[in-house]
């Protein structure tokens, strides 16, 4: 059935080994992030085979699925937790990224009631403006956290590049190191982890510019896409087609490149833009925005141009193609992170696993 995602576990393992070995060489532990694959157990197993240190996901449902499928590894919850899921968290999660004192206190109370101690990494906002206490207030908050029973504060962390696009520079890394040092000097408390890295922070590892105190990365995009979208690059040594999309042609027609008639907004409220190239040979694929992000489709055949998509159809231009395409033929695409996220989440996209 098409459309379908094809997941090449051999290439996933290559990409995982590629980043794990680089990080381990600098004493950096790696949490393999499975969220873009909706917690697919086969992906977690592939990562574990490359000596990944823990498995990370943003959704409790995915962590429960992974555990239910026999994945034996420490689990890190990436999304700061909802109060309503704390009971499930205690039963299923080993380490939690967290930023709210109120939530930490309730988590501690619930953990104590179950005779447990919950490990947390306290998130600090260094300027990207997503989760975390503002960096100037970090130490005073940590002073309160270490007094909360039922909680084991094992580290501090940050998120960069995902919301504000702020790059994880050496300056930003040293801000976390300074906070760790201040906690040690003022509070006499030792933090085990500084979890400072996503794929966007890999250049610091590759260039060996990472401060030695930074010892934990959370990596998903570099393993599954082989890309680093924040820095607009391909990850050295990684495949960009470890996971790819196949979609079927349902129409081939010669049509003008410009619509005829008064132009309004498209089905998603956007103003479409067109370039007049005369008559062009176009295909319609049976996949649309309910399944993919069309801007994140990268045709394997570089002569193909992705034009636009609606809910259920994607239109491509094949005028420059040397290959002769027919109805029923399959077009293959590499995927950006956003396109992979949508395709994995869509129930209408079949998932096929190979191990070449």
Automatic annotation (TrEMBL):
<dbReference type="GO" id="GO:0005829">
    <property type="term" value="C:cytosol"/>
</dbReference>
<dbReference type="GO" id="GO:0030170">
    <property type="term" value="F:pyridoxal phosphate binding"/>
</dbReference>
<dbReference type="InterPro" id="IPR000821">
    <property type="entry name" value="Ala_racemase"/>
</dbReference>
<dbReference type="InterPro" id="IPR001608">
    <property type="entry name" value="Ala_racemase_N"/>
</dbReference>
<keyword id="KW-0663">Pyridoxal phosphate</keyword>
<dbReference type="GO" id="GO:0008784">
    <property type="term" value="F:alanine racemase activity"/>
</dbReference>
<keyword id="KW-0413">Isomerase</keyword>
<dbReference type="Pfam" id="PF01168">
    <property type="entry name" value="Ala_racemase_N"/>
</dbReference>
<protein>
    <submittedName>
        <fullName>Alanine/ornithine racemase family PLP-dependent enzyme</fullName>
    </submittedName>
</protein>
<dbReference type="InterPro" id="IPR029066">
    <property type="entry name" value="PLP-binding_barrel"/>
</dbReference>
<feature type="domain" description="Alanine racemase N-terminal">
    <location>
        <begin position="7"/>
        <end position="223"/>
    </location>
</feature>
């Amino acid at each position: 059935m098409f459309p379908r995602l094809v997941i090449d576990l051999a290439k996933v393992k290559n990409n995982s080994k590629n980043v794990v070995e680089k990080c381990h060489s600098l004493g950096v532990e790696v949490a393999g992030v499975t969220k873009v694959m909706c917690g697919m157990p086969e992906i977690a197993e592939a990562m574990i085979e490359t000596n990944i240190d823990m498995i990370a996901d943003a959704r409790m449902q995915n962590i429960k699925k992974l555990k239910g499928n026999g994945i034996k590894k420490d689990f890190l919850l990436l999304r700061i937790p909802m109060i309503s899921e704390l009971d499930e968290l205690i039963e299923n999660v080993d380490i939690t990224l967290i930023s709210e004192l109120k939530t930490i206190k309730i988590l501690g109370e619930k953990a104590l009631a179950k005779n447990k101690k919950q490990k947390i990494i306290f998130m600090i906002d260094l300027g990207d403006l997503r989760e975390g206490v503002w960096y100037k207030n970090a130490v005073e908050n940590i002073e309160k956290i270490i007094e909360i029973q039922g909680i084991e504060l094992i580290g501090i962390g940050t998120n960069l590049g995902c919301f504000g696009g702020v790059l994880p520079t050496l300056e930003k890394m040293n801000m976390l190191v300074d906070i760790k040092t201040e906690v040690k000097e003022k509070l006499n408390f030792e933090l085990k982890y500084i979890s400072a890295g996503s794929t966007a922070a890999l250049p610091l590892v590759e260039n060996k510019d990472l401060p030695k105190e930074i010892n934990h990365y959370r990596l998903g995009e570099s393993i599954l896409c082989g890309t680093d979208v924040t820095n607009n690059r391909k990850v050295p040594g990684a495949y960009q087609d470890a996971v790819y999309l196949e979609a079927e042609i349902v129409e081939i027609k010669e049509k003008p490149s410009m619509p005829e008639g008064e132009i309004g907004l498209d089905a998603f409220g956007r103003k479409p833009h067109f370039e007049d190239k005369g008559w062009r040979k176009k295909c319609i694929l049976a996949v649309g925005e309910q399944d993919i992000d069309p801007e994140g489709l990268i045709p394997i055949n570089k002569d193909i141009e992705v034009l636009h998509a609606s809910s259920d159809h994607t239109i491509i231009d094949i005028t420059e193609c040397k290959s002769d395409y027919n109805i029923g033929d399959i077009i293959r695409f590499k995927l950006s992170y956003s396109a992979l996220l949508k395709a994995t989440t869509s129930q209408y996209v079949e998932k096929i696993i190979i191990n070449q």
